[in-house]
Amino acid sequence: MALTETQRRQLGRRLEEERARAQRALDRSIDYHTAATEQARAGDTTVAPLHLADLGTDTMQAELDASNATRISRQLAEIDAALERLKRDPERFGTCEDTGVDIPFERLDVIPWARTCDQADA
After folding, report:
1. Domain total for the chain?
2. Is 47 a domain residue?
3. pLDDT at residue number 98
4. Would residue 46 count as lying in a domain?
5. Is 29 helix (H, G, I), strand (E, B) or coil?
6. CA distance linking residue 103 with residue 93, whole number of Å
7. What is the C-alpha to C-alpha distance for residues 47 and 39, in angstroms, rounded to an integer?
8. Radius of gyration over alpha carbons of the chain, in Å?
9. Residue 17, domain extent
C-alpha cells in the first residue's frame, strides 16, 4: 500500500530531524579536531602522551573518530538523497529500488532514508 500524505509528511519531518542530528554530530567532531589542531599549532605539548601505550590509544581513538565521521557523512548523503526523492516524486517515495514494491511504513519510520526493502541498507 502506497504511503499516505500524512505518512509522507511525517517521514519528511523525521528526515529533517535526522539530518539535523547527524549534522550536529559531524560538526562536533570537526570542532573537536580543529581545537586539538589549534592547540598543537600554539605549541602546547601538554597533551603529548608520556607513554607509548598512550600514543597507541590516541592513534586508535583518532582512527575511530575518522571512521565515525565517514559513517555520519555517508548517512547525511543518504538522508539528503531521500529528501530529494521525497521532494522530486512524493508519490513514489517509499518504493523499493530493487523490487518496485512498497517499503513497509514501519521500516521507513525507523530508517526514513531506506531505499530498499532489504535490511542491508540500514
Report:
1. 1
2. no
3. 93
4. no
5. helix
6. 9
7. 9
8. 20
9. 5-41+53-121
Give which of 108, 118, 119, 120 is closest to 12, Cα–Cα: 108
CATH code for the domain in which residue 102 is found: 1.20.120.910
Per-residue pLDDT band for 15 (boundaries 50, 70, 90) equals very high
pLDDT digits (tens, 9 = 90+) for 70-122: 999 999 999 999 999 999 999 999 999 999 999 999 999 999 999 998 865 55
The answer to whether the beta carbons of residues 113 and 103 sit under 8 Å apart is no
Residue carrying the nine cell digits 559531524:
26
C-alpha cell belonging to residue 71: 559513517
Q: How far apart are CA 118 and CA 3, in angstroms?
A: 18
Q: What is the mean pLDDT of the chain?
A: 85
> What share of the chain in percent tops pLDDT 70?
81
Cell of 80: 539528503
Rounded CA-CA distance 24/52 in Å is 33
**Cell numbers 517515495 correspond to what residue?**
93
